[in-house]
Amino acid sequence: MSEILQQLGLNSTLVLQAGLFVITVLFLRYYVFSPYVAANEQREERTTGSEAAAQGLSTQFTQLESQYENKAKELHENVSQIFTKQRTMAAAEAERLVQEARAQAQSTTEQVKKTIREEADRAKQQIPQEVKTLAAMMVQKLLGKGA
Predict the structure, then answer these.
(1) Are 11 and 5 in contact (CB under 8 A)?
(2) What is the pTM of this model?
(3) In the chain, count of helices (H) and strands (E)?
(4) Which residues contact 5 (CB under 8 A, 6 or more apart)?
(5) Do the beta carbons of residue 129 and residue 136 sit within 8 Å?
(6) What is the distance between the alpha carbons of residues 51 and 37, in angstroms, rounded to a whole number?
(7) What SS3 state is found at 73?
(8) Gap between the Cα atoms of 89 and 108, Å rounded
(9) Which residues contact 14 (CB under 8 A, 6 or more apart)?
């Protein structure tokens, strides 16, 4: 066998080189490759964990957005109901005030008409007396001037 090795150009350093190769591979495996593989696995776990967390946050955001839209819709409906109710109440109050003002105006008008009628009746009653007085004064003046 040593003849075959010598024909191939290999000598006794082959065993030494093979031993150094095995030692180097073992050293690199424990001190270089194992930490690298562990770090790579941790990075993948963090990335996968981050993706899952991002997906969870996205789902949570979608749920919160849906809740917000529902609450906003409810609030809008409540505001619309309150606004409609207040507008109806304001219209009723305005109508009540208008009716009250009309009634007061009607009452005032009736009082003024009554006062005018009373004044007219009083004037009608005083006219004959004043006519007599004026006629007497006119007669006196006419007689007083002519005499």
Answers:
(1) yes
(2) 0.43
(3) 3, 0
(4) 11, 14
(5) no
(6) 21
(7) helix
(8) 28
(9) 5
User: What's the pLDDT band for 1 if we cut at 50, 70, 90?
Assistant: low
> Distance (Å, rounded) from C-alpha 109 to C-alpha 120?
16
Q: What is the per-residue pLDDT across 9-48, written as a single tens digit (0 to 9) for each?
A: 777 777 788 889 999 999 999 998 899 999 998 888 888 7
Q: Which amino acid is at 108?
A: T
CA distances from 62 to 50, 56, 65, 67 (A): 18, 10, 5, 9
SS3 category, 10: coil
Measure the CA–CA gap between 99 and 111, rounded to whole angstroms.
Answer: 18
Number of domains in the chain: 1
Write out the residue range of the structural domain in which residue 136 sits: 2-146
**Count, residues in the chain:** 147
Residue type, 119: E
